Known about the structure:
- The protein is of the alpha+beta class and 364 residues long.
- It folds into two domains: 265 residues, Deoxyribonuclease I, Chain A; 90 residues, no CATH class.
- β12 and β13 form a beta hairpin.
- α3 packs across α4.
- The termini are close together.
Amino acid sequence: MIRIATFNLENLFTRPSAMQQERAEQGRKALEDHATANAIAGKARYSQADKTRLVELSKTYGWHQANPPRNALVFICSIRGRLFRIRQDQIEVIADGRDDWVGWFELRRDDVKWQATYNTGRVIDAQRPDILIAVEVENRPTLERFNEQVLSAQFNFRYPHFMVIDGNDQRGIDLGIFSQFPIVEIRSHVDDPRPDGSRLFSRDCPEFDIFLPGGERLILLANHLKSKRNGNDDASRNLRKAQAERARAIAVNALGRSPLVLLGGDLNDEPGSAALAALFEGGFQDVMAHPSYPQARPGTYQTGLANDKIDYLILSPTLQTRLRAAGIERRGSYHPRLWEPFDTVGDASEEASDHHLVWADLDF
Protein backbone atom coordinates (compact mmCIF):
# COMPACT_ATOMS: atom_id res chain seq x y z
CA MET A 1 0.00 0.00 0.00
CA ILE A 2 1.30 3.46 -0.91
CA ARG A 3 -0.08 6.65 0.63
CA ILE A 4 -0.09 9.78 -1.54
CA ALA A 5 -1.05 13.21 -0.23
CA THR A 6 -1.23 16.88 -1.13
CA PHE A 7 -0.75 19.72 1.31
CA ASN A 8 -0.57 23.49 0.89
CA LEU A 9 2.31 24.26 3.24
CA GLU A 10 1.97 28.06 2.96
CA ASN A 11 5.77 28.44 2.97
CA LEU A 12 7.92 26.70 5.52
CA PHE A 13 10.31 29.19 7.08
CA THR A 14 9.55 32.59 5.54
CA ARG A 15 6.45 34.07 3.93
CA PRO A 16 5.72 37.36 2.15
CA SER A 17 4.50 39.80 4.78
CA ALA A 18 1.69 40.82 2.44
CA MET A 19 0.29 37.29 2.58
CA GLN A 20 -0.13 37.20 6.35
CA GLN A 21 -3.83 36.87 7.19
CA GLU A 22 -3.88 39.84 9.56
CA ARG A 23 -2.89 42.13 6.67
CA ALA A 24 -5.70 41.07 4.34
CA GLU A 25 -6.68 44.36 2.67
CA GLN A 26 -3.28 46.03 2.87
CA GLY A 27 -1.66 42.81 1.75
CA ARG A 28 -3.84 42.41 -1.34
CA LYS A 29 -2.92 45.92 -2.43
CA ALA A 30 0.79 45.26 -1.86
CA LEU A 31 0.65 42.09 -3.97
CA GLU A 32 -1.04 44.00 -6.78
CA ASP A 33 1.44 46.88 -6.50
CA HIS A 34 4.37 44.47 -6.55
CA ALA A 35 3.08 42.87 -9.76
CA THR A 36 2.37 46.26 -11.35
CA ALA A 37 5.82 47.67 -10.54
CA ASN A 38 7.63 44.63 -11.94
CA ALA A 39 5.47 44.65 -15.08
CA ILE A 40 6.39 48.27 -15.72
CA ALA A 41 10.06 47.72 -14.85
CA GLY A 42 10.32 45.00 -17.48
CA LYS A 43 9.15 47.19 -20.37
CA ALA A 44 11.61 48.23 -23.05
CA ARG A 45 10.31 51.82 -22.88
CA TYR A 46 8.42 53.53 -20.07
CA SER A 47 5.50 55.74 -21.07
CA GLN A 48 4.63 58.87 -19.15
CA ALA A 49 1.74 56.94 -17.62
CA ASP A 50 4.19 54.24 -16.50
CA LYS A 51 6.42 56.82 -14.86
CA THR A 52 3.48 58.50 -13.15
CA ARG A 53 2.36 55.16 -11.75
CA LEU A 54 5.84 54.36 -10.43
CA VAL A 55 5.95 57.72 -8.69
CA GLU A 56 2.56 57.07 -7.11
CA LEU A 57 3.73 53.69 -5.84
CA SER A 58 7.01 55.10 -4.56
CA LYS A 59 5.10 57.60 -2.44
CA THR A 60 3.54 54.59 -0.70
CA TYR A 61 6.63 52.41 -0.33
CA GLY A 62 9.49 54.93 -0.28
CA TRP A 63 11.49 53.45 -3.15
CA HIS A 64 12.93 56.88 -4.00
CA GLN A 65 14.37 57.36 -0.53
CA ALA A 66 18.01 56.73 0.31
CA ASN A 67 16.82 54.74 3.34
CA PRO A 68 13.34 53.35 2.55
CA PRO A 69 11.10 52.34 5.48
CA ARG A 70 12.07 48.90 6.76
CA ASN A 71 8.43 47.93 7.28
CA ALA A 72 7.41 48.60 3.66
CA LEU A 73 5.70 45.54 2.22
CA VAL A 74 7.38 46.03 -1.17
CA PHE A 75 10.98 47.18 -1.62
CA ILE A 76 13.23 47.97 -4.57
CA CYS A 77 16.42 46.10 -5.49
CA SER A 78 18.53 48.46 -7.60
CA ILE A 79 21.74 46.93 -8.97
CA ARG A 80 22.92 49.34 -11.65
CA GLY A 81 21.72 52.76 -12.73
CA ARG A 82 18.94 54.71 -11.08
CA LEU A 83 15.19 54.59 -11.44
CA PHE A 84 14.27 57.62 -9.30
CA ARG A 85 15.69 60.99 -8.35
CA ILE A 86 14.44 63.89 -6.23
CA ARG A 87 14.59 67.33 -7.83
CA GLN A 88 13.09 70.36 -6.14
CA ASP A 89 11.28 68.06 -3.73
CA GLN A 90 9.62 66.24 -6.62
CA ILE A 91 10.01 62.50 -7.31
CA GLU A 92 11.03 61.76 -10.90
CA VAL A 93 11.57 58.55 -12.83
CA ILE A 94 14.78 59.16 -14.76
CA ALA A 95 15.09 55.75 -16.44
CA ASP A 96 13.36 55.63 -19.82
CA GLY A 97 13.23 51.85 -20.07
CA ARG A 98 14.65 48.50 -19.14
CA ASP A 99 18.11 49.21 -20.57
CA ASP A 100 18.64 52.27 -18.35
CA TRP A 101 18.81 50.44 -15.03
CA VAL A 102 19.11 46.94 -13.59
CA GLY A 103 16.73 46.17 -10.75
CA TRP A 104 13.39 44.80 -9.66
CA PHE A 105 10.85 44.87 -6.83
CA GLU A 106 10.63 42.35 -4.00
CA LEU A 107 8.06 41.52 -1.35
CA ARG A 108 9.28 41.82 2.22
CA ARG A 109 9.31 38.44 3.93
CA ASP A 110 8.74 37.57 7.58
CA ASP A 111 9.87 34.47 9.42
CA VAL A 112 7.13 31.92 9.85
CA LYS A 113 6.42 31.29 13.54
CA TRP A 114 8.36 28.20 14.67
CA GLN A 115 5.26 26.62 16.18
CA ALA A 116 3.51 26.82 12.80
CA THR A 117 6.50 25.21 11.08
CA TYR A 118 6.60 22.50 13.75
CA ASN A 119 2.87 21.85 13.30
CA THR A 120 3.36 21.57 9.54
CA GLY A 121 5.77 18.75 10.29
CA ARG A 122 3.32 17.25 12.75
CA VAL A 123 0.55 17.14 10.13
CA ILE A 124 2.85 15.31 7.72
CA ASP A 125 4.09 12.97 10.45
CA ALA A 126 0.51 12.12 11.45
CA GLN A 127 -0.16 10.59 8.04
CA ARG A 128 3.39 9.87 6.81
CA PRO A 129 2.55 9.82 3.10
CA ASP A 130 5.03 7.98 0.91
CA ILE A 131 4.64 10.74 -1.68
CA LEU A 132 3.61 14.30 -0.85
CA ILE A 133 2.74 17.07 -3.29
CA ALA A 134 3.99 20.21 -1.55
CA VAL A 135 2.17 23.40 -2.56
CA GLU A 136 3.51 26.87 -1.72
CA VAL A 137 7.12 26.08 -0.93
CA GLU A 138 10.01 28.48 -1.32
CA ASN A 139 12.70 26.41 -3.07
CA ARG A 140 14.55 23.11 -2.93
CA PRO A 141 17.08 24.15 -0.24
CA THR A 142 14.10 25.03 1.95
CA LEU A 143 12.61 21.56 1.42
CA GLU A 144 15.96 20.07 2.37
CA ARG A 145 16.14 22.11 5.58
CA PHE A 146 12.56 21.20 6.48
CA ASN A 147 13.25 17.54 5.72
CA GLU A 148 16.34 17.41 7.95
CA GLN A 149 15.65 19.99 10.66
CA VAL A 150 11.93 19.40 11.17
CA LEU A 151 10.76 16.04 9.83
CA SER A 152 13.92 14.13 10.72
CA ALA A 153 15.02 16.01 13.86
CA GLN A 154 11.58 16.42 15.43
CA PHE A 155 9.67 13.37 14.14
CA ASN A 156 12.33 10.83 13.13
CA PHE A 157 10.88 10.70 9.64
CA ARG A 158 12.40 11.93 6.39
CA TYR A 159 12.21 11.66 2.61
CA PRO A 160 15.23 10.54 0.57
CA HIS A 161 13.96 12.30 -2.55
CA PHE A 162 12.54 15.80 -2.96
CA MET A 163 12.41 18.44 -5.66
CA VAL A 164 11.13 21.94 -6.43
CA ILE A 165 11.14 23.69 -9.78
CA ASP A 166 10.92 27.47 -9.60
CA GLY A 167 7.79 28.64 -11.39
CA ASN A 168 6.25 31.88 -12.61
CA ASP A 169 5.18 33.27 -9.23
CA GLN A 170 7.52 36.11 -8.25
CA ARG A 171 6.41 35.81 -4.62
CA GLY A 172 8.41 32.61 -4.23
CA ILE A 173 5.52 30.16 -3.80
CA ASP A 174 6.33 27.13 -5.88
CA LEU A 175 5.39 23.47 -6.30
CA GLY A 176 7.46 20.61 -4.96
CA ILE A 177 7.39 16.96 -4.10
CA PHE A 178 8.63 14.68 -1.31
CA SER A 179 9.01 11.01 -2.18
CA GLN A 180 10.19 7.76 -0.62
CA PHE A 181 10.81 6.48 -4.15
CA PRO A 182 13.17 7.72 -6.89
CA ILE A 183 12.07 10.64 -9.06
CA VAL A 184 13.39 9.56 -12.43
CA GLU A 185 12.08 12.24 -14.80
CA ILE A 186 10.79 15.79 -14.43
CA ARG A 187 9.00 17.88 -17.05
CA SER A 188 8.21 21.56 -16.59
CA HIS A 189 5.43 23.52 -18.29
CA VAL A 190 6.47 26.88 -16.93
CA ASP A 191 6.62 28.36 -20.45
CA ASP A 192 3.32 27.02 -21.78
CA PRO A 193 1.72 30.08 -23.43
CA ARG A 194 -1.66 31.72 -23.46
CA PRO A 195 -3.06 32.98 -26.79
CA ASP A 196 -1.60 36.43 -26.13
CA GLY A 197 1.87 34.95 -25.61
CA SER A 198 1.94 35.38 -21.82
CA ARG A 199 2.65 32.36 -19.61
CA LEU A 200 -0.36 30.22 -18.82
CA PHE A 201 0.39 28.71 -15.44
CA SER A 202 0.45 30.92 -12.36
CA ARG A 203 3.21 28.70 -10.99
CA ASP A 204 3.84 25.66 -13.19
CA CYS A 205 2.37 22.24 -13.91
CA PRO A 206 5.43 20.03 -13.33
CA GLU A 207 5.33 16.32 -14.12
CA PHE A 208 7.21 14.03 -11.75
CA ASP A 209 7.80 10.46 -12.93
CA ILE A 210 8.38 8.15 -9.98
CA PHE A 211 9.57 4.55 -10.08
CA LEU A 212 7.67 2.44 -7.56
CA PRO A 213 9.18 -0.60 -5.82
CA GLY A 214 7.38 -3.06 -8.11
CA GLY A 215 8.81 -1.39 -11.21
CA GLU A 216 5.70 0.56 -12.21
CA ARG A 217 5.92 4.21 -13.21
CA LEU A 218 3.66 6.69 -11.40
CA ILE A 219 3.28 10.15 -12.98
CA LEU A 220 2.30 13.02 -10.69
CA LEU A 221 1.23 16.41 -11.98
CA ALA A 222 1.41 19.12 -9.31
CA ASN A 223 -0.58 22.29 -9.72
CA HIS A 224 -1.67 25.48 -7.99
CA LEU A 225 -4.24 27.18 -10.19
CA LYS A 226 -5.12 30.87 -10.30
CA SER A 227 -6.08 32.10 -6.85
CA LYS A 228 -9.24 33.95 -5.82
CA ARG A 229 -7.20 36.04 -3.36
CA ASN A 230 -7.61 39.27 -5.34
CA GLY A 231 -11.16 38.54 -6.43
CA ASN A 232 -12.89 36.01 -8.65
CA ASP A 233 -13.85 38.04 -11.70
CA ASP A 234 -14.35 36.68 -15.21
CA ALA A 235 -10.65 37.06 -16.00
CA SER A 236 -9.67 34.93 -12.99
CA ARG A 237 -12.23 32.24 -13.76
CA ASN A 238 -11.27 32.14 -17.43
CA LEU A 239 -7.58 31.80 -16.57
CA ARG A 240 -8.27 29.02 -14.08
CA LYS A 241 -10.38 27.25 -16.75
CA ALA A 242 -7.59 27.55 -19.33
CA GLN A 243 -5.07 26.23 -16.81
CA ALA A 244 -7.29 23.27 -15.96
CA GLU A 245 -7.85 22.44 -19.62
CA ARG A 246 -4.11 22.49 -20.31
CA ALA A 247 -3.40 20.42 -17.19
CA ARG A 248 -5.88 17.83 -18.43
CA ALA A 249 -4.16 17.73 -21.83
CA ILE A 250 -0.82 17.17 -20.10
CA ALA A 251 -2.34 14.38 -18.00
CA VAL A 252 -3.85 12.67 -21.05
CA ASN A 253 -0.50 12.88 -22.85
CA ALA A 254 1.20 11.37 -19.77
CA LEU A 255 -1.02 8.30 -20.13
CA GLY A 256 1.18 7.40 -23.09
CA ARG A 257 4.05 6.77 -20.64
CA SER A 258 2.01 5.09 -17.91
CA PRO A 259 -1.65 4.45 -17.10
CA LEU A 260 -0.89 5.53 -13.51
CA VAL A 261 -1.41 9.31 -13.62
CA LEU A 262 -2.38 11.57 -10.73
CA LEU A 263 -3.05 15.30 -10.84
CA GLY A 264 -3.06 17.01 -7.46
CA GLY A 265 -2.60 20.23 -5.55
CA ASP A 266 -4.47 23.40 -4.71
CA LEU A 267 -6.86 24.07 -7.59
CA ASN A 268 -8.60 27.03 -5.96
CA ASP A 269 -12.13 26.08 -6.98
CA GLU A 270 -14.86 23.66 -5.96
CA PRO A 271 -15.51 20.35 -7.77
CA GLY A 272 -18.69 21.49 -9.57
CA SER A 273 -17.17 24.65 -10.99
CA ALA A 274 -17.09 25.20 -14.73
CA ALA A 275 -13.43 26.15 -14.43
CA LEU A 276 -12.40 22.66 -13.30
CA ALA A 277 -14.80 20.64 -15.44
CA ALA A 278 -12.14 19.50 -17.92
CA LEU A 279 -10.17 17.75 -15.19
CA PHE A 280 -12.97 15.24 -14.63
CA GLU A 281 -13.45 14.22 -18.26
CA GLY A 282 -12.41 10.86 -19.66
CA GLY A 283 -12.85 8.97 -16.41
CA PHE A 284 -10.51 11.03 -14.22
CA GLN A 285 -11.94 11.29 -10.70
CA ASP A 286 -11.03 12.90 -7.39
CA VAL A 287 -10.51 10.68 -4.34
CA MET A 288 -13.51 12.33 -2.66
CA ALA A 289 -15.66 9.92 -4.68
CA HIS A 290 -14.43 7.04 -2.50
CA PRO A 291 -16.91 6.09 0.28
CA SER A 292 -14.23 6.45 2.97
CA TYR A 293 -13.76 10.16 2.20
CA PRO A 294 -15.49 12.50 4.74
CA GLN A 295 -18.98 13.32 3.51
CA ALA A 296 -20.31 15.66 6.21
CA ARG A 297 -17.53 18.22 5.86
CA PRO A 298 -15.67 17.47 2.60
CA GLY A 299 -13.85 20.80 2.29
CA THR A 300 -10.07 21.08 2.54
CA TYR A 301 -9.75 24.76 3.49
CA GLN A 302 -10.56 26.69 6.66
CA THR A 303 -13.76 25.20 8.17
CA GLY A 304 -14.09 22.39 5.64
CA LEU A 305 -17.44 23.33 4.08
CA ALA A 306 -18.33 21.82 0.72
CA ASN A 307 -17.50 24.99 -1.22
CA ASP A 308 -14.07 24.99 0.46
CA LYS A 309 -13.07 21.77 -1.28
CA ILE A 310 -10.12 23.20 -3.22
CA ASP A 311 -7.32 20.63 -2.72
CA TYR A 312 -7.40 17.54 -4.93
CA LEU A 313 -5.95 14.16 -5.76
CA ILE A 314 -7.44 13.36 -9.17
CA LEU A 315 -6.80 9.81 -10.42
CA SER A 316 -6.68 8.28 -13.87
CA PRO A 317 -9.11 5.38 -14.41
CA THR A 318 -6.42 2.73 -13.81
CA LEU A 319 -5.31 4.40 -10.59
CA GLN A 320 -8.91 4.47 -9.36
CA THR A 321 -8.95 0.67 -9.37
CA ARG A 322 -6.07 0.81 -6.85
CA LEU A 323 -7.76 3.29 -4.46
CA ARG A 324 -8.54 1.71 -1.08
CA ALA A 325 -9.11 4.69 1.26
CA ALA A 326 -8.99 8.48 1.33
CA GLY A 327 -9.23 11.13 4.01
CA ILE A 328 -8.39 14.57 5.35
CA GLU A 329 -5.96 15.48 8.13
CA ARG A 330 -7.40 18.62 9.74
CA ARG A 331 -5.74 18.75 13.16
CA GLY A 332 -3.09 21.25 12.10
CA SER A 333 -5.84 23.83 11.54
CA TYR A 334 -7.35 25.74 14.46
CA HIS A 335 -11.14 25.40 14.55
CA PRO A 336 -11.71 23.89 18.02
CA ARG A 337 -15.51 24.19 17.84
CA LEU A 338 -15.54 21.92 14.80
CA TRP A 339 -12.72 19.46 15.55
CA GLU A 340 -10.01 19.00 18.14
CA PRO A 341 -6.70 20.39 16.86
CA PHE A 342 -3.31 19.05 17.87
CA ASP A 343 -2.39 20.12 21.40
CA THR A 344 0.47 22.13 19.87
CA VAL A 345 -1.98 24.30 17.88
CA GLY A 346 -3.06 26.82 20.50
CA ASP A 347 -4.50 29.48 18.21
CA ALA A 348 -4.68 30.50 14.54
CA SER A 349 -1.13 31.88 14.56
CA GLU A 350 0.17 28.38 15.31
CA GLU A 351 -1.71 26.66 12.49
CA ALA A 352 0.30 24.53 10.09
CA SER A 353 -1.83 25.95 7.29
CA ASP A 354 -5.36 27.12 6.62
CA HIS A 355 -5.52 24.19 4.19
CA HIS A 356 -5.84 20.56 5.23
CA LEU A 357 -3.77 17.62 4.07
CA VAL A 358 -5.65 15.26 1.71
CA TRP A 359 -4.42 11.65 1.51
CA ALA A 360 -5.21 8.51 -0.42
CA ASP A 361 -4.09 4.90 -0.01
CA LEU A 362 -3.47 3.02 -3.25
CA ASP A 363 -2.76 -0.67 -3.64
CA PHE A 364 0.47 -1.40 -5.49
